[in-house]
Automatic annotation (TrEMBL):
Protein name: Transcriptional regulator, DeoR family
PROSITE patterns xrefs: HTH_DEOR_1, HTH_DEOR_2
One Pfam family per UniProt: HTH_DeoR
Domain of life assignment: Bacteria
Domain (HTH deoR-type) ranges: 3-58
Record's keyword terms, sorted: DNA-binding, Transcription, Transcription regulation
One MF term in the entry's GO annotations: DNA-binding transcription factor activity
Organism per entry: Salipiger marinus
Gene3D superfamilies listed in its UniProt record: 3.40.50.1360, Winged helix-like DNA-binding domain superfamily/Winged helix DNA-binding domain
């Protein structure tokens, strides 16, 4: 990640939260600790943030606390070819006329292009997904109420009495921070609260995750693997990770990223 992009990610993080640790910035930017400390020093000198012990804080604390994790715009370019293949494999599970839930994320966003051939009822908390489906497809789109988190481009509500409880879906498609034997992991408590509500409204839960997610961890567990019906990932998944899913009774679908390249070239 280039310096300007790192600075944009760091400033976005400190503007969204009262304090961001060096470790969090390292994870967000996939940079070394030494690089992050230099970035913090530079931005502190420019008076764009305040350097504090262990991290940085905003010069002007936010009115609404942001979410943990990298911004949508940064994640969108990560493993893009694998995500496109995964998105296409996910849409292959969808039939015309079905009601589905698509949780916000950069991997689930890749479902929007193949969904142009479907006419479904789609519940999503993602602005980019909703906008594309409204402009480019014939799908019906339902959005929840709640607070808009600009960096992740999603709507989340801490309340039980929102429209979520009135929507039924055959499948819920969602991404995640990490996949481990203990379960599906996410970085933020509010994200988990919202996703747990959505999981309760669907017959099946389908996780869309590129193979790097099997190596990532978070301190927060969304649900055990027993609650997951299917995981769709790319062809770099290891035998050990495939065996982990099989032992938990989770169906594994492998989407070859090479097929995505061939189709793009053909188009």
């Amino acid at each position: 990640m280039h310096e300007n992009e790192r600075h944009r990610v760091i400033l976005s993080a400190v503007e969204a939260k009262p304090f961001v640790s060096v470790a969090e910035m390292v994870e967000m930017t996939e940079s070394s600790e030494a690089t992050i400390r230099r970035d913090i020093a530079t931005l502190h000198m420019q008076k764009k943030l305040r350097r504090v012990r262990g991290g940085a804080e905003s010069v002007a604390p936010p009115a609404v606390i942001g979410l943990a994790g990298r911004p949508f715009s940064v994640n969108l370019s990560k493993n893009a070819r694998q995500k496109r293949a995964i998105g296409r494999a996910a849409v292959a599970l969808v039939e015309d006329g079905e009601s589905i839930i698509i949780n916000g994320g950069t991997t689930t966003f890749q479902m929007v292009h193949p969904l142009a051939t479907r006419r479904c009822q789609v519940f999503t908390n993602s602005f980019p997904i909703a906008e594309h489906l409204l402009r480019q497809t014939k799908n019906t789109v339902v959005l929840p109420g709640g607070t808009i988190y600009r960096e992740q481009n999603i709507i989340l509500s801490p309340f039980d009495n929102d429209v979520t409880r009135n929507f039924y879906a055959r499948c819920m498609f969602m991404g995640c921070q990490g996949i481990a034997p203990i379960g599906i992991m996410e970085p933020d408590p509010l994200v988990i609260q919202s996703e747990q509500k959505l999981i309760g409204q669907a017959d099946k839960v389908v996780i869309l995750a590129d193979s790097t997610k099997f190596e990532k961890r978070s301190s927060l567990i969304l649900c055990p693997l027993a609650q997951v019906d299917t995981v769709i990932t790319d062809d770099r998944v290891t035998d050990a990770h495939a065996a982990m899913l099989e032992s938990a009774g989770v169906t594994l679908i492998v989407a070859p990223a090479g097929a995505d390249e061939e189709e793009a070239d053909a188009g």
